[in-house]
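<context>
A single protein, sequence plus fold
<entry> Chain with its tokenised backbone below
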Amino acid sequence: MSEYRLTHSVTDHRGDLLLDAGTVLSREAMQSVACVATASIGTCRLMDFYQVGSDLNDFFAAPPYDVIFKGTDRMRALLDIAGEVTMPEPLLEALYHFRKLDFYTYRHTLLVFALSILITRELIADRTAMIQEVLAGPVHDIGKRCVPIEILTKETPLTPSELEHLHHHTLAGYVLLSHYFRDPDILAARVARDHHERKDGSGYPLGIAMDSLTTDIIMVSDVYDALISPRPYRKSSYDNRTALEEMIRQAETGSISHTVVRVLVALNRRSRPHFSQCVLSAEERGAPPEDNVYGTTQPNEKNGPH
């Protein structure tokens, strides 16, 4: 059986070592990192931290999010749920780190969070369960705090070693969230670890077939925003039609959740249909952006999205 093994060390927000490179993330290792003693750590509501609320409003104003988040009822429900999300302060400080040094990752993290709330509302009725589910959104990429900024913002294809370091963010996030929440079994930690796995086993870090609704929601939100947003490695983004066509293609091949993609498509419709009434068309009329190095590394290697 494959095992989770760190390719690089993981340090906390103070730079203190949590686990060395090469560590196998066994049950014992994860319980140990969850119990590492630190100075008292406070918590804070995400929406009260720095400029999160105002930044989200700015992000919602840009297409296609201006359609997705349009409507008083939809926005009220989103902000009501988001307002209940409380996090350890070091995780919020990591968001601030990205805001200063890698604004794409900051913006992406918040939009994946917001989009995952809308999707979760359509698929999960229980409010308590919903709050637990959406907590994974603002921290799914927190492991990128352990990846050099030079790699995250690189405008040319990654080298194999840079790609390995980038992929490290999934397990680094698992370790960090287990540590700060003091619980290796918390859903947010498992989603951080698994959000680049795929339903057909084509993802990483282990290449296992993923079957988790929360991971499916974050997975779809993550890929969608990656396609339609500015990225360091391409001159222009996917237009919304082409992005949705790509999401449908991946759903049809069994890589990502067909149901979650249907919800995403319904959210993009101005007529506001229920996702159960939304038919996914396999017709492709869009075209990916030119000069796009998404999915490539330097010669003879394969890459996944940043």
The radius of gyration is 19 Å.
